[in-house]
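Methods — Computational structure assignment.
A single polypeptide chain was analysed. Its primary sequence is given first, followed by the predicted tertiary structure written as structure tokens.
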Amino acid sequence: MHEAVAAIAGCGVSPIVRIPANEGWMVKSNLYTCDNSMWKLIEMCKGALDSGAHGIIVPLIYTADDTIKLLKSAKFPPQGQRGFGSPFPMEKFGIQTTTEYLHQANDALLTIVQIETKEALQNIDAIAQTAVDCLFIGPFDLGNNIGHPIIDGKMDDELHEAIATIQRSAKEHNKSTGIYCTSGDQARHYADQGFHMISVAADMIALPTFLTSALTSAKGSYVHSALNIAKGAAAKMTGPYGR
């Protein structure tokens, strides 16, 4: 992660890190509790923000309390409990001193929560009222969790309404919204609805699509290749990483 964050920031792009769970030691550098009887130093981990990430995406949010826990880990005092001392993040923001980083970090760093559970949908207004920056929708997991999974690329009306509910709550509380998409057309659809952070394709989709197109062109005529490419483009994505 350290190497990837440095490489992305070096290109003038903001590195955003999705952490596996809402655990403080993944967000920042911290000690990890092993059991209730004693503290054990299992891992001193330089977390996402201590590596210089400009923001974090956190999955499996259920309640506003979950977002408050995240904010305490991500923010320096007095807003949170993040410790100060990592030598890595300052260089990811250009020429910046440690004092300058400390003064701007709480306002500049993005906290993005994934709305993908039934409980998060039920608690969306309370979650949106916290100090998180962006509500990011995972439609495949959200559909599964509310009993309306995406089957053969088709989204039920109930899932569309759930997405609209999240969008309405975000607008009401001045939050940005994001959503995972599997195609340019779908991304355009949600961009037109006012979403701010939108995936267009995953590498597991983009790479096979490009390679298939290239191989088809190499094997057949231009007309034959064009027809096959058109067929491929028209195919619906039935899962988050393609068919």
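Note: Confidence is low (pLDDT under 50) at residues 29-46.
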